[in-house]
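Worked example (supplementary).
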Amino acid sequence: MIIKGGIVYDPANGIFGEEMDICIESGRIAEDARGEVIDASGLLVMPGGVDAHSHIAGPKLNTGRIMRPDDSRIGTEPRTRVCRPSTGYTVPNCYAIGYRYARLGYTTAFEAATPIIEARHTHEELEEIPIVDKGALTLFGSNWTVMECVRDNDLGRLAAYVAWGLRAARGYGVKIVNPGGGEAWGFGSNVKSVHDPVPHFDVTPAQIIRALAEVNERLRLPHSIHLHFNNLGRPGNYTTAIETLELLKDIKPSRMRQVVHVAHMQFSAYGGTTWKDFESKASAIADYFNQTNHATMDLGQIIFGPATTMTADAPLEYANARIGHQKWSNHDIELEESSGVVPWVYMRKMPVNAVQWAIGLELALLTRDPWKVVMTTDHPNGGPFVNYPEIISLLMSREKREEEMKTLHEMVRSRSTLPSIEREMDWSEIVIMTRAAPARILGLEDKGHLGIGADADVSIYDIKPEEIDPSKDHAKVKAGLSRAKYTIKGGVVVVRDGEIVAAPQGRTYWVDAAVPESDMDRMLSSLKEKFERYYSIRMSNYMVQDAYISNPFVVRAGVQPLKEVI
Amino acid sequence: MRTITIKLPEHRGVPVEAERISPDVLAGLSIREISEIEVWQGNRRLHLSDIFLVSGDPDPDTPENTRIVIEGDLSKVKRLGEGMSTGVVEIIGDAGMHAGNSMRGGILRIKGNADDWLGREMRGGRIEVEGNAGNYVGAGYRGERCGMRGGEIIIKGNAGAFLGEHLCGGTIEVMGDAGDFPGCANQGGIIRIHGHAHLPGAEMVKGSITAGSARVLPSFVHEGTVELGGSTYKKYVGDLVENGKGELYIASGQIGK
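After joint prediction of all chains, the assembly is encoded as:
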């Protein structure tokens, strides 16, 4: 296949809007090719989108669907020759997730949180999401075994547990959510700072985060630790954010990437002491990211309208349910986590929501290096991912931001710096934020760029970058990005003129990490006892079997040098 | 006024979804075009004329000037008059589930009984039922936080359980009795029940409920008596569980705590 005459943006390879042809052979970008010719004359061409933080599969999604029969009435689309029926807006059914990502030109999406014990369900749902390549991060932050290893200061055993946990869950990386807080919630409390001890474990969130970060590097995992801060969603929490990032400054990365990826930064960039004097501290956070190089973030941009919040931060969800007078689901996940689901509505005239909206945009616009910020809505916590074109058009157009701010509560002007920000992103920066950076952050070498040998994931939009001025024609930008003219996934045309024309099964990425046998033996002997005493299922029923993943892509990692140890 | 008559000659087992039978859709169509509109019976896509006999004035007219008369045993025909905004629909017989749901205007007359979900999430217009109505009259559908927001529903007979659940506006009047929990989670609508109501206004925040007699929840507080339309009513305020400011008026009869 040859894509002819497109205006190509591939910042990872130093290509910023050049007219060129792209050749695809056997599902990869190649030097030259034969076969189908796609005429992309003058059109915007870029690598397929990569979503580094989204909630697309697992029990909390299903809980959301069960709690919200009202949501399944929105966004219904009938079956077509290619597609199965779609339902839902904030918690769409599995098929709809795949189709909608593809229609936006996205070809990869990672589920950001799965407890090991629920991983089988996560993979059952991932299997039903068509088209996109996917993977799931595994939760370790409030896990009993993790906290015991940290307490005993036994990083060898911790590395063995992380490697075992990733294998058991067929997971891709280490996710940490409100570390310690999930366990404290079992006793009706929370941890308030990174130095608050976790009840009964004699460890602090700071120790858990540092130990997992060190082990993450010792295992040379493709992705860094993926961290949801303590105190998330609370006024004044930006100090916790900076304090936590400071903890990790001296850790050496084992790969060409950050040491920590911060999830949905917007929810952790709050100033003030209560919701009454709540204000944006995005500029303090952006300054920190501008001065340091060990961390990256995703936005967690909010979108006005309905959302469904779902997180392993159970005490946060309890607070949300009380504030919003909403229905609430809470789940204790045995020795591993606790979690919650609460429906939500972000309102333009609500002062807090208006400021939250501004914070996401501020973070993106004030952080100078787009490689450090990736665009997400923390779907469906900040809003559904189908609104990504809306966010892009806001980042590219000051005029659009001004228009939007007129419809919001006036506090957006007094409590954030957004009105004074003039920056308008260009296409290169957008491609970095939505493709190149998330791929690099996740350690996906064949994604997010169009170099020879990369996965042939390409999106082509009905936007002529040489004729259109995104700062003025923001409506055209949004419309064009909402319906890709072509989405090509692994060399297969899956979207043509905004319609799904093929729905192949994507790959599931997971990481198989090797550790010294002695560490693994030590870890397993205590873990077996835990299963006997506390777990509701047997260890032999715990692992996700290969049969659950029909199209796996296994990334090898592990403690080095392996030879000397074995 | 153009009259269109749609007859159901025989009752069929599998329910029919007939949401397109409303003045908004049919007014501008010829009889032939009306015969060809799509209805679903179970998983089969059919033309209206495969199930019904269509007749009436041949000339198209505006929806305001359109009256649709539907005859037969329609108890298995769902969604009649769905989303109608004007005109008149008359059902000579019993109507199936979801009649008049999301209605915005016009008049829906049901000469027999109505099934569950009558006028759910209705926004405007008027529904009149000669017989009884089922459960969830004017309610919000599963998971919705707002049911009926405007318009009025009048039921000559009795109504089932959860009458006007999550009501956010509009008026419902029941000449007979209501089942369990009428007006629960009322957010600002008006309900008048002339007969007996069982545990009305649970979780209500705003709005008012009037009943001939009722068993009242203990989370309502008695605030003396008031005169309404020449009769004396006991006034209650609640539901205090929701810090509610809803008003509940009970004429007489059994008032339990």
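Two points are worth noting when inspecting this output. The two ends of chain B are 53 Å apart (CA to CA). DSSP finds three helices and 17 strands in chain B.
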